[in-house]
Amino acid sequence: MGTNLDELLGIQGLIISTYGPNEKFQIENLFVKFVFECLGLVNITDDVLTEISRSVTFKLVKILTEAKKVAHKSNRIKLTSSDIDNSLILCGFESLLLNEQVYNQNSLIRLLSNNRQNDIYFFYDDEVDIDDYLSNSRSKCKAQLDVGLKSHWLAISGAQPCIVENPINVPKSDLAKAKDSNEDLLPVSLHLQIFYKEVTEASIGTLEEKRKEALAALQRDPSVRYLVAPLCSFIYQGIRVNIASRNLAILIYIMRMVCSIIQNASIPPEVMEHHFHELIPSIMSCILSPEQCSKKFEENHWALRIYSAKLICNLCSNYEHFIPHLRSNVLHILIYTLKNILSQINIDEETFEITENGQSYDILDFPFGTHFGAIYTFILFPKDLVRDTFWPLLKHECLLFEALNFNLATIDHDNLKRDIGKTELQLANLLASILTQDELSDSPSLESIVGKYMTDKVYQARLAAQEKQVV
Predict the structure, then answer these.
(1) Per DSSP, which regions of 353-452 are E strands?
(2) CB-count burial class (<10 Å; 0-12, 13-18, 19+) for 11
(3) Sheet with 346-347, edge to edge strand ranges
(4) Average of pLDDT values for 300-319?
(5) Contact 27, 56 (CB under 8 A)
(6) How far apart are CA 141 and CA 179, in angstroms?
(7) For the segment 227-250, what is each residue's pLDDT rounded down to a tens digit?
């Protein structure tokens, strides 16, 4: 080509730009332009290059992150090609390693196709001549790997030898002492056990003064770092039980406990990281749970969803440096929830009729709380990340709320209209934040993206935001 490829592709075939101490990177536009030119495409604008670069970088980082998780689950440190292939499948992309239907005859991998079952991939073993194997010419023939046996002494003259293969021989007297003694069984001191009991009871109790004192202790007391594990288990079990029993008040109290624990400066980030598998599902359940109270049209479950959304956003901001792509994982949960809701209903674009499994859909059964929580959480996250994640569902969401308002005209239900209005307002605010100024200023272009109904709602939300900034 007459051009140094290393100068174009940089280190390891990618041009990567590094920004600041957080080491955020993105594929440069020069590399994207080079790929377009190799494909015969020219005159690509800088805006298109930037958008494609941002999208490809996001997907590439996501694939590598999933591959690292696959390697970690397989108890391996080194990343292999199969990890990349599995991560592509997990991220919804086509497999690159085992998706070919025809292989080279010299390839180790063979394909056995069966119309009744899935394809089977296997390795052909080399045929071994038994005469060559029994002879002394080891260089010509190597034995296939098989189960190996190794002998060792279990006991010598009635005594077990102290070797690696045998378990440690603990005298029975020591085991009896360990059972009788309670000191080795206590994970924390008696003082911390009393502290844990008093704090948990006061945090979900009926007295507001004691609750404030308990939350203040969780936020400032240095000894809380030794109680993170039991506190997170208490929070996880409390959320699970009270969502099932629809106890809204206890759910709010527990979320205030989570907020206090996160704000405790004495808890190291590496300690909190080990308990995110209990905290994040608890917070996300308070955001996305369809029913959090027995009277969903009367009780204020919106406040819990808003509070939990702000809490998960602060959690991602504080620990994004220690846990990469924590925000991406949370957004993946949100977008999966919305996709699951939209996949259960069908909407006629002409008549706006909503059906489910061929039957008429009852609007009263629609999970407005889940929709509200997901959309409100989207608003709190960075715009560029939300735009890339939410964009595939944008038209479906706009069509859904246009159909809901069309069918709402035939229903006399004030509380239902209020719920639709709240969720619709958050959707309009989200669209006004992620759409560019060029898209918002061009009415025909905006109407082609979000529809005629939501175009008016987006302009109203934008005007309200501008008036709020002026005030």
Answers:
(1) 354-356, 359-360
(2) exposed
(3) 346-347, 354-356, 359-360
(4) 92
(5) yes
(6) 57
(7) 999 999 999 999 999 998 889 999
